[in-house]
Specification:
heterodimer, A: about 210 residues, alpha+beta, three-stranded antiparallel sheet, two-stranded antiparallel sheet, 7 helices, 9 strands, about 15% strand, elongated, B: about 230 residues, mainly alpha, about 50% helix, binds zinc ion
């Protein structure tokens, strides 16, 4: 049986050095930092759920474009070859490197997609009806656990390096997916910056099922 | 009355690692859970030192094949050229791509090495009960945790090259076993950084009896920033 602890809403503790504080009352855009170790204790963002939802929707559309279209088209001596992220993952698998194939699939496809879908699932009912979806608390916990494994911005740099390496091998034409990935990187970063986790947790706690 | 800095642990509170809610466990609870998100609560990350040591040592071992074995092989008109991580950087330098060479050098060589050294240093300093510069060590930890993901660049480069270059007899690119080891290093060091608990640095700083604490601040004094 689960033994739930008793919540203490008046206090917060530093997650990096464990110092105890009275919970600050912050204006939107302010943050409180730990005087001992400098960690950000608590932050209130100017943006609301609307911005987070809009960015999650934009990211989802861009994600689909980024994976439906070819990333690059290459031309060597009249022979044309196209490739996308998923063909790369498939090719790694067929070359026998399933470990890398699985790793790349998780950090560039599965984790970002799951993170976006989880965000939708949690935020949409909260915004529209002020209620939490079934198991929304669990889903939001997964969202936070997934976050470090969604590496779209690192992948974008990988594309850049690959393009430079290929440039002296053949003539390259960027595909739709290349622009989509670049925009996806921006919209996911903006989404991360706009999302106020504290507020979502507070609202989840206050909302009924 | 002690003039020691008040910490959540000394006051009997547990901080949820997931939703950051503070709560007080019921008396005698063996596995208390967070009342808000349901995650299992711990005073400190469980077995933090042992886990971080095991993962860090694994990463050291994987680091050797990651650098010695080829990460990919480019075959052009029948001639194969295996590339290791270092030779990939060299190639970019020879090609005059200085900014990119620096980027790849930083992501694939500097970051993993520094990460391993920093983790080892933090583990040793905590185990020896060091009082040396806790603030700097905490900042070092935060940097280590956030920068690790950038080492994945080389793995992504291989994925894209493999996706695009497949032109039969003209040119093919095949991944190499070094890439598996390198991917392992990145993943294992990410887990190692996640399992280290920076609060252990500060636990060792708690003043012993009769000692004047170096940090005693009243509860509730934060630095506000706009
Ligand atoms: Zn702190």
């Amino acid at each position: 049986m689960a033994e739930y602890a008793v919540a203490e809403h008046a206090l917060i503790a530093c997650h990096d050095c464990d110092l105890l504080f009275r919970k600050p009352r912050l204006q939107p855009g302010q943050k409180a930092c730990c005087p001992r170790c400098g960690a950000v204790l608590f932050r209130r963002k100017r943006s609301g759920l609307d911005q987070s939802l809009a960015l999650a929707f934009t990211s989802l559309v861009l994600f689909m474009l980024a994976n439906a279209y070819p990333l690059l088209r290459m031309n060597i001596a009249g022979r044309v070859q196209e490739g996308s992220l998923l063909t790369g993952i498939e090719e790694l698998y067929s070359q026998g490197y399933w470990e890398i194939s699985a790793l790349v699939f998780v950090v560039t496809f599965l984790a970002p997609l799951a993170k976006l879908l989880c965000l939708f699932y949690v935020l949409l009912p909260l915004r529209l009806f002020g209620r939490r979806a079934p198991k929304a608390v669990l889903v939001f916990r997964w969202t936070e656990l997934l976050s470090p494994w969604a590496m779209t911005e690192v992948f974008m740099l990988g594309i850049l390096v690959a393009v430079v390496k290929l440039a002296d091998l053949a003539a390259l034409t960027p595909g739709i997916a290349l622009y989509s990935f670049a925009s996806l990187m921006v919209s996911m970063a903006a989404g991360d910056a706009m999302l106020d986790e504290h507020e979502v947790w507070d609202r989840l706690e206050a909302a009924g099922d | 009355m002690t003039n020691q800095a008040p910490t959540a642990a000394s006051a009997g509170y547990l901080l949820c690692h997931c939703c950051h809610l503070l709560s007080r466990p019921l008396h005698g609870a063996t596995h208390p859970r967070c009342p808000r998100c349901g995650a299992v609560l711990h005073r400190r990350k469980p077995n933090s030192l042992a886990r971080t040591w095991a993962l860090t040592l694994t990463a050291y071992i994987l680091y050797i094949p990651a650098n010695l074995l080829p990460i990919m092989t480019l075959t052009m008109s029948g001639r194969g050229e295996p590339d290791t991580i270092i030779s990939g950087v060299k190639e970019l330098i020879v090609g005059g791509m200085w900014p990119l060479a620096l980027l790849v050098f930083f992501a694939s060589i500097t970051v993993p090495v520094l990460k391993l050294l920093v983790l080892t240093f933090l583990l040793l300093s905590v185990q020896l009960g060091s009082h040396w510069r806790p603030w700097e060590r905490t900042v070092l930890y935060r940097l280590t945790e956030s920068v690790g993901r950038w080492s994945m660049i080389d793995i992504f480069v291989i994925t894209i090259l493999v996706a695009v270059v497949e032109l039969g007899a003209l040119a093919t690119i095949e991944a190499g076993p070094g890439a598996v080891a390198f991917g392992g290093v990145v993943v294992v060091t990410m887990f190692a950084a996640m399992s280290f608990d920076p609060r252990l640095i500060w636990d060792r700083m708690a003043p012993k009896e009769g000692e004047v604490p170096s940090h005693s601040r009243p509860e509730g004094a934060y630095r506000m920033q706009r």
